[in-house]
Amino acid sequence: MDLLRFITCGSVDDGKSTLIGRLLYDSDSVSLDVLAAIENRPAVHGAIDLALLTDGLRAEREQGITIDVAHKYFTTPRRKFIITDAPGHVQYTRNMVTGASNADLAIVLVDARLGVIEQTRRHTLVAALLGIRQFVLAVNKMDLVGNDEAVFDAIVAEYTTVTRQLDVADVVAIPLSALHGDNVVRRSHKLAWYAGPSLLEHLEQIDVTEDVSADEPRFQVQYVIRPQQVDLPDYRGYAGRIQSGVYRKGDKVRVLPSGLETEIEALEVGQQEVDTAVAPQGVIIRLRDNVDVSRGDSIIVASSKPHVTRAFEATLCWMDERTLEPGQKFLLQHHTALVKASVSALLSKTNVETLLRSAAESAHLNDIVRVRIKTAVPLVADAYQKNRATGAFILLDEQTGATLAAGMIDATE
Amino acid sequence: MSSIPSLDYLDRLEAEAIHILREVAGQFERPSLLFSGGKDSIVLVHLAKKAFRPGRFPFPLVHIDTGHNFPEVLEFRDQLAAELGEKLIVRSVEATIKKQKLRDGTGKFPSRNPLQTYTLLEVIEEFAFDACIGGARRDEEKARAKERIFSIRDEFGQWDPKRQRPELWNIYNGRIQRGENVRVFPISNWTELDVWRYIQRESIALPNIYFGHSRTCVVLPSGQLLGLSEHLTLDDDDEIVERQVRFRTVGDSTCTAAVESDAVTIDDIIADLLLAKVSERGATRLDDNISEAGMEDRKRNGYF
After folding, report:
1. CA-based max dimension of chain A
2. Which of A176, A382, B75, B288 gives the lowest tally of CB atoms within 10 Å of its CB?
3. What angle (nearest 5°) sits at the alpha carbon of residue A70, between those of residues A67 and A73?
4. B9-193+293-300: which CATH architecture?
5. What is the pLDDT of residue A116?
6. Which residues contact B178 (CB under 8 A, 6 or more apart)?
7. Residue numbers in A near B175 (CB within 8 A)
8. Looking at beta carbons, which residues of chain A come within 8 Å of B161?
9. Residue A80 in contact with partner chain B when CB distance is under 8 A
10. Which residue of A has its CA nearest to B56?
11. What domains can be seen in chain A, in order of their start residue?
12. Are B288 and A31 a contacting pair, CB within 8 Å?
């Protein structure tokens, strides 16, 4: 059985929470007591309000909107699903960025009566920017447009112009009604002109296997294990997660940023020595030679030659109330490496509705900007669109530790 | 050349949890692992072995003893700690009640669940813990579904759902200011079914109260069954029955109901679960039903 993580994006009244509620409800993933709790609430249109299955905070129930990212889980015989439900409103773009950062697929919801609107563009842009490659266009509320095929076709055509602009190739469009359950879990005769799979059928069928052997090998040290016990006096293991690619016992490796070369003497997974390990496994690497390695350093297979740099261009999603201006200093967390950094220049800002870029002198909450970054210590920097693991970083406030921005490396200098 | 391992969903959940545990070790000075003796914290201990052996755990196990624990669970706890050779810190709610002059749980089923928060905050202060690892899962409850994996608490232990840091990718930001601490939930993305399937795959030992056994129970007005213990005050007309039961969660014995079950093996339990239509907390917790925001309120006040 495998695992699929997906995000649902939609505007305030697209029925996103209802869709998730419907997926859980119709796949028998909602338990009786949870149903009883929501059935105690006033009904909408005589049906139980499935949106109540996802809105977890009191303020969300009071206002009837989703504020924060929520996680929901369900399992079918084929697959475990992790749903990230992110709010759709523009003031919560940072929450959507957060949700998309951990998803492999995006369901973009539109209201069949409204079609593609500005928010649809923004959601698709953010999901594509965060490296999601598989999209589902869920055209909801088909019942309110008489289940009309022509309406659906027009929306699909319009959406295609958006995805083309963003170089998103893999889009499957599905007409549905979350409120009535049409084409969500089961196909509906009301939409008989549609020959494709229901939403759940599609989510169960799509290929999630990735060929990790094609990826550049990357590993970063999280923690050094030194038992210093009588029976293991010299044991020194570098614990971390393989970020991408494959590692093998005997591989020639280079420690970065120091550049020292050695060889993998042993590879351990869960207290056992193995010959091969792959992303995203947690491993312990033991090295042939006693070289200086600490948390934040990378151990890279010597045949792979990543950029090790103190300056690069990146796209930031700015997530804080204060204004970003050139010259400001931060802490940059690149997984286990924590270094001082500055934003040396703002290059451009992306208009999330028109998808066009323009010059920028500052950035505000929810802005998406291209910047130049300098770091105090060199980083192993891959472009995000090539490597979602090592191309990502966050910026922190040095004093409070607050997370200020999500960053994606665009190009190294 | 050796073949490339293919990973299933349990391998991926395991890798995620090990990564989180090692981030705690790498980022904090004085972490701890909150150990209840329940299956989720036992799974955490198993994951910690995978993350840190052959080294020692970089944190002690901390148990908040309510004084209402199942004796089987305490026995299991001591045995596990001895086998591991790791440090176990036990602090009792009883002592906190005396020291802070708190009112003990009263009534027919006196719950000490809310009182645990006081002891937890005391032990955090006593050892200056900057991170506490817990076994909470997001599928348990609606408020938990919105909590981060690294969840920052102020010096009063309070969770503020509106001021949570965005948690991007698998980059965990544990940088905090003096007085703050972080609760860390490595198995946030696991469901009850995932936990059981993992216990099955890894052959992890559990306290025997998780498996079907005969027990003397009180029948509650709701129909739920509560194991008979010295902490309950019975009325003359209470219905006392002998039933084949097991526990789905292991909390305070005064507020953790048993479910009727013949499941004696892990396979039986998984089969039971696939059929079960009542969620874990709903089936067995007497304290979450109080209000729709029960858990959100308790977390805001420093609860696990």
Report:
1. 77
2. B75
3. 160
4. 3-Layer(aba) Sandwich (3.40)
5. 94
6. none
7. 331, 338, 396, 401
8. 57, 68
9. yes
10. A227
11. 2-205 (3.40.50.300), 212-301 (2.40.30.10), 307-412 (2.40.30.10)
12. no
Handedness of CA B45, A102, A340, B164 (dihedral sign): negative
**For chain A, which ranges sit under pLDDT 50?**
46
What is the reported pLDDT for A65? 55
Tell if the CB–CB gap between B1 and A232 is shorter than 8 Å: no
Query: Rounded to whole angstroms, how far apart are CA atoms A267 and A277?
Result: 8
User: Which residue is associated with the tokens 């995006």?
Assistant: A106
User: Which 307-346 residues of chain A touch chain B by CB within 8 A?
Assistant: 319, 331, 333-336, 338
Residue B56 banded pLDDT, cuts 50, 70, 90: very high
Distance (Å) of CA A387 to CA A1, A390, B300: 25, 6, 38
pLDDT at residue number B289 = 45
Residue B47 pLDDT > 50: yes
The residue among B146, B176, B190 with the most chain A CBs within 10 A of its CB, best to mutate, is B146
Q: What is the pLDDT of residue B290?
A: 43
Q: What gap in Å lies between CA A251 and CA A301, rounded to an integer?
A: 6
Cβ <8 Å between A282 and B18: yes
What is the arithmetic mean of pLDDT over B256-276?
A: 84
Contact B282 A31 (CB under 8 A): yes
Contact: A403, B168; criterion CB under 8 Å = yes
Q: How far, CA to CA in Å, does A286 sit from each of A226, A274, B58, B120, B262?
A: 11, 12, 19, 38, 47
Chain A environment of B55 (Cβ under 8 Å): 225-227, 237
What ipTM goes with this model? 0.92
pLDDT over 70 percentage in chain A: 90
pLDDT computed for residue A134 by the predictor = 94
Sheet containing B225-227: order of strands: B225-227, B213-219, B240-246, B259-260
* Tokens describing residue A136: 């589902």
The answer to whether residues A254 and A300 touch, using CB atoms and an 8 Å cutoff, is: yes
Q: Facing residues of A104 across strands? A: none
Tokens read off for A316: 């930031």
Residues forming CATH 3.40.50.620 domain(s) in chain B: 9-193+293-300
Q: Which of B52-56, B150-154, B175-179, B259-263 has the highest mean pLDDT?
A: B52-56
A349-400 tens-digit pLDDT? 998 878 889 999 999 999 999 999 999 999 999 999 999 999 999 999 999 9
Residues of A in contact with B163 (CB under 8 A): none
How far is the C-alpha of B33 from the C-alpha of B37, rounded, in Å? 12
N residues, chain B: 304
pLDDT in tens, B223-253: 888 887 777 777 777 888 899 999 888 777 7
Beta bridge partners of A262: A253
Q: pLDDT at residue B49 above 90?
A: yes
Shortest alpha-carbon distance between residue B39 and chain A (Å): 19
Q: Which two tokens stand for residue B132?
A: 């506490």
For chain A, give the mean pLDDT: 89
- Give, for B18, the enclosing helix (H) or strand (E): helix B9-27
SS3 (DSSP) at A34: helix
Q: pLDDT class for B216, splitting at 50, 70, 90? A: confident
CA torsion B79-B83-B89-B91 (nearest 10°) is -10
**How far is residue B260 from each of residues A30, A139, B227, B232, measured CA to CA in Å?**
21, 45, 11, 20
Q: How far is A225 from chain B (nearest CA, A)?
A: 6
Cα dihedral sign for B40, B45, B49, B55?
positive
Name the pLDDT band for B151 (thresholds 50, 70, 90).
very high
User: What is the distance in angstroms between the Cα of A36 and the nearest Cα belonging to chain B?
Assistant: 10
